[in-house]
Amino acid sequence: MKNMSLKSRKIKEYFIEKIILISGIISIVFVILIFIFLLKEGLSLFKTISLKDFLFGKLWYPISEPPKFGILSLFLGSIWVTLGAIVISFPLGIASAIYISEVAHLKIREFLKTGIELLAAIPSVVLGFIGMTTLVPLVRKMFNLPTGLTALSGSIMLAFMAIPTIVSIAEDAFYSIPKRYKEAALALGATKWQTIWRVLIPAGFPGIVAACMLGIGRVIGETMAVMMLTGNTAKIPKSFFDPARTMTATIAAEMGETVRNSEHYFSLFAIGIVLFIITFIVNLIADIYIHKELK
Amino acid sequence: MNPKLSEKIFFTLFFLATLLIVVLVGSVIVIIIIKGLPVISWKFLTTVPTNGMREGGIFPAIIGTVYLVLMTIIFALPVGVFSAIYLVEYSADNILNRLIKLAIINLAGVPSIVYGLFGLGIFVIFLGFGASILAGSLTLAIMILPVIITASKESLEAVPKSYREVSLSLGATKWQTVRYSVLPNALPGILTGTILGISRAAGETAPILFTVAAFYLPRLPQSIFDQVMVLPYHLYVISTQIPNIKSEYTYGSALVLVALVLMLNLAAIILRSRYRKKQ
What we know:
The complex is a heterodimer.
Chain A: H1 2-42, H2 51-56, E1 60-61, E2 68-69, H3 72-103, H4 106-121, H5 124-143, H6 151-175, H7 179-187, H8 192-221, H9 224-229, H10 247-254, H11 263-294
Antiparallel strand pairs in A: 1-2
Helix pairs in contact in A: 1-11, 3-6, 3-8, 4-6, 5-6, 6-8, 7-8, 8-11, 10-11
Chain B: H1 3-36, H2 42-46, H3 59-90, H4 95-109, H5 112-126, H6 133-157, H7 161-169, H8 174-203, H9 231-240, H10 247-278
Helix pairs in contact in B: 1-10, 3-6, 3-8, 4-6, 5-6, 6-8, 7-8, 8-10, 9-10
């Protein structure tokens, strides 16, 4: 009797360990599956259209006759909007990470962190809607434009959305710097600011880079807010005051109207491949810098 | 420049940057509450959309969101927790472990619209689920997996080594040790991660666009193969596709969504800070 129960327990343990192992590697399986399914649908486009025409074609007319599937204007739309968001969010995010981790009093530190965490939680469709009713009219009036639906409006909102990522990762980086670095600098008579500038920022630099890369990843992949704010004109923007259309918004706006297994349908998956590769690289760089910091 | 003076200038700048962010966050929330609250009523919350979705009635969208999120958690929670158990308790520090961590980071970084494409390709078309609660919740489950794994992993790591040693020395097997002495102590952290995952799933729009969300569907779902209305998509629809809608009603829907998501997040934050104090 006792042996039986021991045996059945061993069998149970064996199965549970297998389930745990499968769950462990499932993340790898999903990453591979995502890539395979994007390729499976996306690569069909290149039976009829060359990769060069897809990547460098300036015209995106997916439903005219003959259709054009050049994503250059969409790619540059994403780049413009992302650059704008970088210019706004990097300085603000890093400055506030320094303030929260090194300057603010302990009591308000938690309050500020919670406030920024809540920002990360607000759904992007809500921020898109708020942007439509407040930011877009503001941009239109301030710069006297025919429409406020511009790359600039998208950039401002995206910067706002990237800031929580940048602040929390950069703050972690400052937090993980050994205390003795700071104490040594202060003991030598450096001011707090000199310590931050000469000691903490260089020591935390890999973490700051990682924070910025993850911020970029967030911005490039953002869909809803961008679609609602940038005007969605598939033309290469000449300035921040032009409407722009990003790769993400194109997929979201057009997939609903495509015919399954048409060139248009395949082309949206092909854009998905481009997005997947870009974010993969950006996240890989972030990961490398995070590990540098640990050493 | 005088070091004291430059310190003052820079710290003031940093303070202003932080203040700007916090004030903007605060005003976004305040605007939504002030403009949305007047239309919130029992009727607004519990009836189907009226007058071409121009006058509220968001009951089907609320129920749809609840169903979708529940299903998402049913899929994501066990897999996420087991995955964290593997990483912390079972795996060696080898190349596989490193690859899994890299995969988790990448899952966390895949754009939400790409999840939408993937869900469409695999669940809606390849596996033939159609646009349905099942397809949508599986898509969302994969998306929030990194959130749950990361939170569970951190809380498992925080359980002292001695707990495991005592249990093993008393003759318990590896799994018994994990099940009865590690997991109960990691539970608050896992719960925090789960709530954050729920909140993320409840607010996302892009992954559900082609996998489950219905434009207008005034009845409640009968099975997991039904499409449903969902709050974030409903908000997108009424703010971009419905002409002549009074903005109060759009703000009302936005308020319900934000309230749902922020309450979940506050719960997670409170739970986490209590748990940390205990430790």
